[in-house]
Specification:
mainly alpha
Length: 154
Amino acid sequence: GVIPMQIAKLLDQIMKMADKKKADQKLGEIADIIYFGGLDSSELKQVLQKMIGYLAKEKDQVVRETLLNTILEAIVKYDVGEALTYDEIIPILDKFNEEELGYALDILGFSRDDNYLPVLSKYLQHPVKEIRETAADAIEEIEYHNWLLYSQRN
C-alpha cells in the first residue's frame, strides 16, 4: 500500500507524466485510495485542494474528467466541500466540455459558498438543459444550506 503522507507527492509525480493514459490510470489508483478511506481528514483535504489546482493547468481532457470525478465523489462521500476553495476553477469553467462543466457546477454547489452564486446563475441560461438543471441544483444546495445556518442562529 501507499503511505498516505506520500499521496500528495505521488499526485505531483503523476501530473508531470508525459504519458497521459498512464497518468489517468495512476489517478484512478489515487481515487480508489481516497474512496476506500485511506487518508485522514487533513490529508484528504490537502490532496483534493491540490487536484483543484491541477485542474486549471491540465490540458488533457481525460485526466481533467478523472480529477473532477474524484473531487466530486470525495466531497459527497466525506462531506468536505466546505473545507476547500474553488477559485482556481472559476476562470476555466468556459473551457470545459459539457461533462466537465456538469462536474464542476456540482462541486461548486457542495462548496455551499454563496460567493459562487453569481457564477452559477450564469449557467441557468446555458443552451444545454442538463447544464441548466445542474446549475439550478447547485444554487439550491447553497441557498438551502445557508438558509439552514441562518434559521439555526435565529
